[in-house]
Amino acid sequence: MPAAALPVAALAQEAPATSYGADPDLPAPQRGLLPDMTIPRPALWGDELPTVPEGYAISAIATGLKIPRQTLILPNGDILVAEGKGASAPAMRPKDIIAGFIKSLGKSSEPGGNRLTLLRDADGDGVYEMQTVFAEGLNSPYGLAYIDGAIYVANQDAVVRFTYADGQTQAGGPPETLARLPSALNHHWTKAMTASPDGRFLYVGIGSNSNITERGIEAEENRAMIWQIDVATGAHRPYATGLRNPTALTIQPGTGQLWAVVNERDEIGPDLVPDYLTSVQEGAFYGWPYSYWGQNVDSRVKPQDPDKVASAIAPDYALGAHVAALGVAFSNDAMGPQFAQGAFVGEHGSWNRAEPVGYKVVFVPFENGRPSGDPVDVVTGFLQDGDKTRGRPVGVSVDPRGALIVADDLSNTIWRIAPAQP
C-alpha cells in the first residue's frame, strides 16, 4: 500500500450512473463505523504546470503565499488574495480524531497568513510584477467584496471594512467592524461573501457546526445559512437556510441572482451527498440537516421535522459527492467562446472516499441563464496517480480582461489561465 493512501474502511458500492447535473442518481445511504478515507499527499510541481485546454495558457502569477483562499479583482485590475487558516472545532468522537489526522496529511504545512496580499500587473501583459502585503493582523480572512471605495473582508468571526482609493497598495489603517459573525466552535470556519449588484447588501455564507447535528441543534443557531447584511447599518437577517456549508458566493451577471456552491454532508457513502451549485432563492430552505437534495430524509437526525422536509427545495446542479467545491465565478466573453456562458468552480478535492475526486477546476455551461450540460474540466493535473497531489484549488475569479484566476492553498500559488491568443 502506498504511504500516501490511508484507506481506513471500505464501503462496497457502485458509483451512480449520473453524479452531476440537475437530476443526479442518488444511491441508497450506506453507513459504517468509518467512511473510506484516502487523502492524496502533497507533491511538488517542479518544472511542470497544471493542464489547461488547447488554446489556453497557464502561469503562476504569485508564489510563496500563506494559504491563499479567495481572490478579488479590484476596479483597476489589481488582485487581492485572502490568506488564512482557521481553527478547527474540538473533536467529539474517536473517528473525528482519525478524520482530522487524515485530512491534515493533505494540507500545506504553511501557517495561515491572516493577511491580504495585493498583486499588480501594471502593463497588462499577464505578469504580476508586484506582490505586496495590503493588510495584516486579520483573523482567518476568507470572503472578499468591493463596494464604492471600500473593501470588505469576511474574517472567521466578523465582516470588516477598509476604505480604499483606486490604485492603493496598502491599507491606510486598521479596518472597521461592520458585523459580528457566528464563531463559537467554528467547525466550518470559512465565511464566503459577495455584494449585491446595487451595493446595499453583503451576502455571507455561514457553515454548520457539525456534519449532521452531532453537537446538538443548539450549536447550529445562526448557522448553515446565508446572511444578508445591510452595508449602511450592519444589521443582518437570514436570506436562505438549510445550506450545510456555503463555501463561495457570486452574483450572476445580467440577472443580479445570487448563486452559491455548497458542501454537503458526509458518512452515508462515497457517492452521497452531492456537493452542488445553486441559485439561492430568498427565504428558501435547502434541507440541512433534515433532508438532502430536496426531500430525501436523513434518518440520522433526531428528532425529525416533517414540515421542514416538506418545504425543502432541491438545488440546481450536482457537482458530485465530496468534490469539496470552494470557489465559483461566472465567466464572460473574453474567456473565449467555449467558456463564455457559464460558471467556473474550484474543487478542493475529497478526503472521505477510496477513489479521490475533485482536485481540479471545472466549467459548468449555462443556457438561458441556467446550468445546461456536463461539467468540463478546465484546470487539471493537480492529482497524480490518486495518491499524491501537487495542488488544491480554492477560490476562482474571472478578470474581465479575459483570465481565470485560481487560488491553490496546497502549493500556495495563484494561477492565471487565459486564451493563448487574446
UniProtKB/TrEMBL annotation:
SUPFAM superfamilies: Soluble quinoprotein glucose dehydrogenase. Keywords: Plasmid. Pfam families: TrAA12. Residues 127-268, 311-417 form the Pyrroloquinoline quinone-dependent pyranose dehydrogenase beta-propeller domain. InterPro entries: 6-blade_b-propeller_TolB-like, Beta-prop_PDH, Quinoprot_gluc/sorb_DH_b-prop. Signal peptide: none annotated. This is Sorbosone dehydrogenase. It comes from Paracoccus yeei.
